[in-house]
Design brief:
Strand content: 25-35%
Distance between the termini: 72 Å
Helix content: 25-40%
Mean pLDDT: 83
Oligomer: single chain
Largest sheet: 6 strands, mixed
Number of domains: 2
Length: 260
Amino acid sequence: MEIERLTTRHAVELRGAGGASRRIGGLAAVFGKDSQNLGGFVERVAPSFFNKSRGDGWPNVICRWNHSDEYLLGSIRGSTLELSIDATGLNYTVDVPECRGDVLELVTRGDVANSSFAFECHQDAWSTRRGYPLRTLVSGRLIDVAPVSRPAYPDSSVGLRSFARYVQVPFEEVSKMAAANELGKFCVRTDRPSQHRKLTPAEALARLAAKAPPMTGAEARARLAAKAPLTPAELKARLDARALITARRIQLHEQRMRWS
């Protein structure tokens, strides 16, 4: 499994009461929101994506500044990192160590406007969104969360390989189409004509010929004659039924007026 990263544009904030707090946090992932263009396609995170990691107790998940090993901020193992999920997405809070006072100062000043998470994708699904291929991350493993100074240009190779398998096209061809921002061409249906295609003269004549010809005068008179008129008894029964319905409606109206 290859490691991928996805960034959210939500400011990292200082958390906890009092000016002495060293707890910072933010949204590492937002559910159901399209990412930026990742090289011809977009991604979104399904609410189910973190279920396995959460069910296992977030094993070995850490928080790092800019995803760098040299800037470890906290960990689940050390009880210095807290993770939670709500309807919006994945939320994190980390206790910044004394040696990382620079990160704390940057967050306090409001300089850090993004968070990110690193992950392995175990299952994804492809569809189309505004002419772009849309990759939905269905399930996977969370590796880390990170406040980041700026969103790094994403490595889209893993997503492109997944898309190549989906459309059953060689990865090299998909990469060329992505470089030209033309992946949307793979999502155009070619197995049926457009519903708005203009008919050729021959097709128009054929369609008109297929329609039933108008009835002659004799055919119209024969159709009218086939409808037998009502007998006096049938006509009286039909009028009596309508009279009963009208009387019942009047009765119900009078009852409502008395109750109101």
